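TASK: fixed-backbone design
INPUT:
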């Protein structure tokens, strides 16, 4: 039986009848199963316990020469023991490196770590994508939408764009560009995010290129620090910022409308970004915030700040895709598990670079959610005009939201509606 995903917001939580978690990215969908795992926002869910606890930080080097420890999100139930990455799209291995691919008219590929990082250092060796509208991303992204990121636009191969956000609040004055890089498509560069309770540092090829202190982020209006502070997943992706159905500001920021018939596509079958040597070093502390002594992270309040995070021993696994944080052992009972997975499969096929073939995929567009909420039986919907975020430093209306994961999964979710 098909299930139309509910939508949600902080003032329009998922309905009680469904006991739903909320995979709250920019498209604000409610559900069970995968909706209640990584990315589930407790502020938007029916109950703060609807979201599953998240696996704590582990010092780890992620292998990029095999897909043995990767699972598509529709086959992952929350146990990180044998799975490092969960995602959507078409990741491939080529020359012992991980390729994230974006076939024609697809929405690319995104991978997210199964364990979370509550401060620490993450580093990756990357060759970015190339071409108009092609965006590569390497970010930290929390369930309450704290974010620290690198992004690269495929027409500017000398620049890495950096940003940070607190709980998804749009403020593009947080942007800072790292320039004078040698061609980021042709050359490997080592990118790091060094994140402590007091400061963020962006480090490229061993050299600190930008920093931001928490003490510089006080917001007198909201009376809080606008500083990323909650457990986050590592996310790597390639996505079509230049999709022709995107907002004009997004397309302009991404370097123009993406060319699905480019010589690059004809030669390779897809756009791609290459990743190697992804490594996480957890923050070392005996007292919170930032500990990783136990099994799982979970929230005690919808305030969603670091003093509401517990490093505890709650379970992180679901029995089936029909389960949620409120009933972890619920069986499918003959229902279609696909109904409990956000979105669909992103991307298409393709061959390793240097070979021909350009299989077609699907396209879509992202939209915002509106505040007026109505509940009718099982389903909930938010009516009103669809909107977009307005950009500042980038000069872009980014209806895709802040993260590449939001963009990709948001697209694929809309393909099913």
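OUTPUT:
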């Amino acid at each position: 039986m098909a299930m139309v995903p509910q939508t949600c917001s902080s003032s329009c939580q998922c309905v009680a009848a469904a006991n739903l978690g909320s995979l709250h990215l920019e498209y604000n969908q409610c559900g069970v199963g995968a909706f209640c795992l990584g990315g589930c926002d407790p502020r938007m869910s029916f109950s703060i316990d609807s979201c599953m606890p998240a696996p704590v930080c582990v010092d780890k080097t992620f292998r990029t020469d095999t897909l043995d420890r990767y699972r598509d999100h529709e086959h992952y139930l929350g146990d990180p023991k044998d799975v490092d990455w969960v995602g959507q799209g078409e990741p491939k291995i080529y020359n012992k490196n991980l390729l994230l691919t974006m076939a024609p008219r697809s929405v690319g590929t995104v991978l997210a770590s199964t364990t979370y990082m509550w401060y620490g250092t993450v580093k990756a060796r990357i060759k970015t994508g190339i071409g108009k509208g092609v965006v590569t991303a390497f970010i930290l992204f929390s369930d309450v939408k704290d974010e620290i990121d690198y992004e690269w636009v495929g027409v500017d191969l000398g620049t890495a764009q950096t940003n940070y956000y607190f709980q998804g609040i749009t403020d593009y004055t947080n942007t800072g560009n790292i320039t004078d890089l040698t061609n980021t498509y042709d050359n490997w560069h080592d990118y790091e995010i060094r994140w402590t309770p007091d400061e963020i540092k962006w480090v490229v090829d061993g050299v600190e290129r930008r920093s931001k202190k928490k003490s510089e982020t006080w917001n007198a209006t909201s009376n809080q620090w606008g500083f990323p502070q909650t457990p986050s997943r590592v996310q790597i992706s390639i996505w079509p910022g230049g999709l022709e159905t995107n907002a004009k500001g997004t397309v302009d920021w991404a370097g123009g409308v993406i060319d699905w018939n480019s010589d690059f596509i004809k030669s390779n079958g897809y756009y791609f970004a290459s990743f190697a040597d992804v490594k996480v070093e957890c923050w070392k502390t005996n007292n919170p915030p930032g500990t990783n002594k136990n099994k799982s992270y979970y929230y005690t309040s919808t305030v969603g700040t670091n003093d509401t995070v517990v490093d505890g021993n709650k379970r992180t696994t679901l029995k089936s895709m029909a389960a949620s944080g409120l009933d972890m052992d619920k069986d499918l009972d003959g229902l279609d598990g696909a109904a409990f997975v956000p979105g669909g499969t992103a991307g298409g096929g393709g061959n390793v670079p240097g070979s021909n073939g350009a299989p077609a995929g699907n396209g879509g567009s992202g939209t915002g959610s509106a505040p007026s909420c109505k509940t009718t039986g099982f389903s909930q919907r938010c009516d009103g005009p669809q909107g977009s975020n307005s950009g500042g430093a980038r000069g872009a209306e980014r209806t895709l939201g802040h993260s590449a994961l939001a963009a990709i999964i948001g697209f694929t979710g809309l393909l099913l509606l």
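COMMENT: The chain has a mean pLDDT of 81.
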